[in-house]
Amino acid sequence: FIRTPMRPSYWCMSAMFVVLFFIYLSAVKLVRGQQDIELTYHDHQAMTTLLTQWAQSNPDLAHLYSIGKSVQGRDLWVLLLTKNPHEEPLLKPNVKYVANMHGNEAVGRELMLQLIPYLLNNYRTDPYVRSLLDNTRIHIMPSMNPDGFENSVEGQCTGGRDLWVLLLTKNPHEEPLLKPNVKYVANMHGNEAVGRELMLQLIPYLLNNYRTDPYVRSLLDNTRIHIMPSMNPDGFENSVEGQCTGGQGRYNIRGFDLNRNFPDHFKANNKQQQPETEVVREWMDSVPFVLSANLHGGALVASYPYDNTPNSILSQFTLHSSESRTPDNDVFKHLASVYSLNHLTMHLGHPCPDGSNTGFVNGTTNGAQWYPLTGGMQDYNYIRASCLEITLELSCCKYPPRQDLGRYWRENKRSLLLYLGEVHRGVKGMITDVNGNAITTSTLKIKERDIAFKSSKRGEFWRILLPGVYTLVITADGYNSLEQQFTVEEGRITILNVQLTPIGLVVSNHSVSVNATHSTKLTNNRQTNAPNITTKSIGLTGDKHIYVTIPSVTDGQEKFANLLESKQWMYNNAVDNCVNALLICHQSIRGGGTLRPPSLLSSLNNNNNALLISSPAISSSSQPSKLQFSSSASPPAIGFSSLLRPNHTITLASDPLAPHQYSWPTWPSRRGQANAQAVTSDLTNTAPISNLFSSLSNRINSWTTNW
């Protein structure tokens, strides 16, 4: 058998046949309206075109009809799919799919636009599809809300523009405990453009001056600053530069005033919630903001809550608005004054040239006393989000010419910077159980201030307060409530860490604090001290305690760990002579843990271990090789010599390759011995002591440096 090569003419004929075959299939699909559609989002016009083509190309299987029109005049299309759609046989059931009821929920809409051609294309080849269309009348409405869809863009809200937020802080991807969050939100009304541009000036100023300005460095090191330059970018795009009055661009693209769109504390707000409002509320829920300012235009004043007033019969007959005070009225007046008094002209209280207002004393006002409004954002921040927010009206002209922007920056620069620093006054702290676990369901209240606030999801809390003596009331489901008195001093923040005990368990609760002072200054003509970040010592004895994490002990030291599991030894020693420094490994010294104060010792179980050190005497040398501890206190009841032999070595291995060794000499064993006993830890040829205590708070970094 001899194979004869195929002639070139046969190759050409075969290729032509294949090409013609695919052209024929495509033509059949095109004639019947069965072309594949692009996997993308289709607007109303594109959807209408597709539905019309399918109905016209498949009259025996499809019929298109409209059940009415939307508010903006778009047809609510329904495509009926069935064999002989213009006939209605008895007992042939009707079934329907309705999609896109919420305009911004677009997946169902596009699934319907894929399902329709699938049923049409497979009617003659798929027995199940054929049976469906022969025996069922299938009504498909791809979009019940075409107007809402047209106002939505995938991944964006309303007119399709993102609501951007820039977070400024040292190490922005880290979230250290008790580092407060503060925010600026501008351009809520699209035609009030000054705040938007000020934010775009503030951002580079903070970044460019971080390494040269001590105050800016302090802000970014100790604060998480969130800046939203525009909450209403659609409104801004519709605004006109140079228009000082009027409402063009004020509202979002749907015609809603975003500063009347939040849930209200005093009156029902039935306005449809807008996408911008919804995402800002979600943002507030996800970040525990402490302080905020909302930047507007059209006046020159710092306005503080409440913006609304309670319903009353008398209020309906009064000719003038009255003040509506919050429980934190003193704090809000202070915050408004900080901004106004540091502004070059706001504090003068001059009225705007157009006569829109008569001026404000010291450039501040209560919002409701100026004019009451329902659905404002600053009231929502205070009541629902536990965040203190004021409203800043920064210019008499809402959208001034661009050549005026330099003047507005000079007028507001100092105020914008100093206002951010106000987050570092008052009180903050952690709420934990007796085992050191964060309690995330705490409700807190300052006594004689009738408003509650919540702890964060990590057990943190903050409250801005003026100098004075206060009582914090803390409640949480399943725990005994606690009242703790504390003092706030000017220029200092009080750190108050408290433990709650489960209901039925009696353990003395104890506040623990670490003293550390922080002070920086603005580098301009009017210098001022920033608030010092200091921890107030509050407790039964006034002792200072340091929270640290003790590295885990290697398996070879299990015997020593077991020796420290004496609950009685730890408790007796702690209450005996008010020990000044105590290191307690909360879980097990073999597994690592966290320092706890003496008051918790009575509740420790047999799985807890402790290492006791009295009266740290910190060396003043820059690079000491030994860390010395001394004690004038009486020794524990059973004596250290019964626990540790002379020169017993303990290895605490935070890094298996770099263990830290501590050698302890003999401790006095007789209870009540009067003379002091020096204890020396040999750190020669080991890792620096600062590495061992790497978990210490940044507020005592200066201490570790001296070590």
List keywords for this structure.
Aminopeptidase; globular; Immunoglobulin-like; carboxypeptidase; 707 residues; 17 helices; CARBOXYPEPT_ZN_2; protease; alpha/beta; Peptidase_M14; 4 domains; four-stranded mixed beta sheet
Give your account of this protein's structure:
Residues 40-423 form the Peptidase M14 domain. One of its GO terms (biological process) is protein processing. The chain has 17 helices and 28 strands. Residues 27-35 and 507-707 have low confidence and may be disordered. β26 (648-652) and β27 (660-664) form a beta hairpin. The radius of gyration is 35 Å and the shape is globular. Helices cover 25% and strands 20% of the residues. The chain folds into 4 domains: 8-150, Aminopeptidase (3-Layer(aba) Sandwich), CATH 3.40.630.10; 172-309 and 328-422, Zn peptidases (Aminopeptidase), CATH 3.40.630; 425-539, Carboxypeptidase-like, regulatory domain (Immunoglobulin-like), CATH 2.60.40.1120; 549-706, no CATH class. The chain has a 7-stranded mixed beta sheet with strand order 5-7-6-8-11-9-10, sandwiched between helices. A 4-stranded mixed beta sheet has the order 1-2-4-3, with helices on one face. Strands 12, 15, 18 and 19 form a 4-stranded mixed beta sheet that branches.
